[in-house]
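[09:14] KT: can someone run the structure on this one? pasting the chain below
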Amino acid sequence: MSNYVTKSGLSVHPLLVDFVEKEALPGLSVSADQFWNGFAELVREHAPTNAKLLAKRDMLQSQIDEWHHKYGPVANNAQGYEFFLRDIGYLVPEPGDFTIETEYLDPEIASLCGPQLVVPVSNARYALNAANARWGSLYDALYGTDAIARDGDLTPGQGYNASRGAAVVRRAAEFLDASFPLASGSHADVTGYHVVKDGSTRHLQVDTPAGRTGLRDPAAFAGYGGTEESGEIVLRHNGLHVILVIDPKSTIGAAHKAGLADVVVEAALTTIQDCEDSVAAVDAEDKVGVYRNWLGLMTGTLEDTFEKGGQTITRKLKADRVYKDANGEPLVLKGRSLLLVRNVGHLMTTDAVMLDGKPVGEGLMDAAVTALCAMHDRGMNSKWASIYVVKPKMHGPEEVAFACTVFDAVERFLGLAPKTIKIGIMDEERRTSANLKAAIYEARERVFFINTGFLDRTGDEIHTSMEAGAVLRKDEIKAERWIASYEDRNVLIGLACGFSGKAQIGKGMWARPDDMAAMLEAKIGHPNAGANTAWVPSPTAAVLHALHYHQVDVFEAQARRHNQPVPALSELFSMPIQAPFSLSREEITRELENNAQGILGYVVRWVQQGVGCSKVPDINNVGLMEDRATCRISAQAVANWIRHGLVSRDEVTSVFERMAVVVDEQNKNDPVYRPMAENYQSVAFQAALDLALKGADQPSGYTEPLLHAARRKVKARDAK
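[09:31] RB: done, structure tokens below
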């Protein structure tokens, strides 16, 4: 630690010192001494509590393991299991009815419903793309994906396919007819759009073969830009804006009877800039890179220059869109997503800061530094200067309360108004799911978001029930009633706590970014279930998912569900075990191969290249979005089958070696990829194998400890 800098009794890596003092603090009223003194006090006061909470996780898990050793799966004694969980303090008393009290929430959180992106903030290009995904071309999203069929005359080619383009225009007209119907006729037949002045106000009129008409709901016309006969026309439905781009001189507009060159939709209302599961930040250098990008987003100065299509492109944050409303007054539409930041959980420590020779809690550092960076927001992000922190991997109300206590302390030493830092509760651990109302109660003055997700939640379900028996195959788990119970409980408890019109209820990721036709069919289920928002894997997917929020009035869906009964805890705890000898050796091998290939495909990029989230081809070469949460599921599933004798450790090792050949082939065109099949002792291969072989012994089944150690080893080797 000879090169560390002493700050208020802390040993701080010089890279972090320089970032804080030379980049994050300038322009703020916070002094360096104020920051370091406050941060040091935060660590000294709250690190012991953090350690006690982690120890309690381990204690509760060991007690649950013992129960399963005695009684077997939950189904053998369901009532006794629930009584036991209450007795050990896993289940806590549910609070009486209450309504959340969070103040100063932006419209994107409280009153607007639409898609949400999650993006690794460590990648400036991706971070900017996501921030700019507030608006997107419907024409481009339809033309470039399988949302429009890709066979016959509609097959995309090297150049522009006019037949495919015409199909896109027809599909866009169907959307306009559904969301902005005309008083008579169809948008498909419009020959002209006109903004017409009537006294002091303006309204939209359209020409059709049957004559001039208008919108069935004239109030859906929100504004215009350019001239009154061309330019852009702004429409509004369910709180979301859609822009008709009129440009008869453009290639697309020239082919349209009304010169409609594009339909631009308001898409990703919010974006989580992620410091956690989708990044690979293992040391001070990595963490400073993460913080620097977050700071650039808050100051509005982040840029990234890259080569694309033989051209050099510089990407930066988009400006707001400025129009005139129906009265001719300025209408300013926000040009970017509302940005949230996901901190790490309570588990990991970081040697970017040391106290008494020991690494400090990484979550404590994230809370302090991301809030410091967010203080540079002058209303470009949040009109209230609220700071939206998504907090993952919290186990139960006690840990939620601890996060809120940490935010209290950060606010005090940074001089922020109380409750400036809002908290998003990720409902991804079973102890939180089972105590959700109590968890929300602990954060009732800060909470802005609760979120469910099959991908995250299943890993914890498997680990918590590790000793109950062999788990089902992953595809079978998706259909289990405990999953439906989990999703329903989250929405219904959120509504009972007063979330409707005040805070977000979110749903999880669509994991197949190339399969947009299926997403359009399936993901409408999220707003129909009463979710204000749901995760999508790309800006293009956000544009398409935005259509669902025109089809469904989420607040009506929430009103419909408000008094539905909350599924009982017995439903939540109902995951069955695999019946003995119910699977053939072929089925077992196939499932093992699928899990092994997914783990290897993700881990090799994480360890070798520091890529925390990527589209990884599965065993059938279908691209799936993978992060640590999906990796945790696969690793825990294999670890469980080892524990219960469905597969042996030698068999798992053999399958991983075979799948390494498959993954090497899938990555053969990556110039920086290092094949694993040539060296089964490589750091990447051994890390992937360890996730399975040692998975049952990992804290809560998390992948971070093993992945961080492997990545640090590779970075140290490459630095020599």
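[09:33] KT: thanks! The chain has a mean pLDDT of 96.
[09:34] RB: yep, looked fine to me
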